[in-house]
Amino acid sequence: MPVAQAGPARRCGFSLIELMAILTIVAIMLAIGVPSFHAMLQNQKLTAAANALFMSVNLARSEAIHRGTRVDLVPAGDGSTWNNGWVIFIDENHDQRPDHNEIILYMHAAVDADMRITPSFTDSKVQYIAFNGSGRTRTNANSQTSQSGNWLLELGSQSRKVVINFLGRPRVCNPAREAASC
């Protein structure tokens, strides 16, 4: 009976050179992909915040029409910055601050700490946007004087604007792509 001869031993695994080549390829792929992923995350955060503000303007406007009364959209907290979030409420005493007896319709949480929100409105003494019962914006000085303007949202090198026209209709635009109309 013939005896089986032992052949070369089979080795499992990778050699050190093969492992180093794979690690080099992975490192190159990560170096290319991580900055793009970070920019994509910033873009998503910025888009989400701009859309939330856009939705809030539409909600305040539709509630003013539905209820036939003044509805305000103001910064949350002490009212100094929109980064703390915002509140939609029925402002019965016209002080642009939600009081304990006023109806709060919606509250939005604070946005990303690195995001900058810069408002620019015709009545800029107090941070607010108010709608009357017909769905048009109004100022504190006169219920017939419309308020228009925008919020500029910036995160990193990217930006969005939520623009409100004199009728109270909002829109979102990208200043980098639509410089003339944004």
SSE layout and pairing:
Elements: H1 16-67, E1 71-75, E2 86-89, E3 104-108, E4 116-121, E5 129-131, E6 137-138, E7 149-155, E8 158-164, E9 170-173
Antiparallel strand pairs: 1-2, 1-5, 2-3, 4-7, 5-6, 7-8, 8-9
Number of helices: 1
Q: Which outline best applies?
A: elongated
Series of secondary-structure elements, N-terminal to C-terminal: HEEEEEEEEE
CATH architecture: 3-Layer(bab) Sandwich
CATH topology: minor pseudopilin epsh fold
- Gap between N and C termini: 91 Å
Structure description:
The strands form 2 sheets. A 5-stranded antiparallel sheet has the order 3-2-1-5-6, with helices on one face. It has a 4-stranded antiparallel sheet with strand order 4-7-8-9, covered by helices on one side. The protein is elongated. Helices cover 29% and strands 24% of the residues. It is of the alpha+beta class. The chain has 1 helix and 9 strands; from the N terminus they run αβββββββββ.
What is shown here, in short?
This protein is α+β, with helices and mostly antiparallel strands. The chain has 1 helix and 9 strands.
Characteristic terms for this protein:
182 residues, minor pseudopilin epsh fold, 4-stranded antiparallel sheet, 24% strand
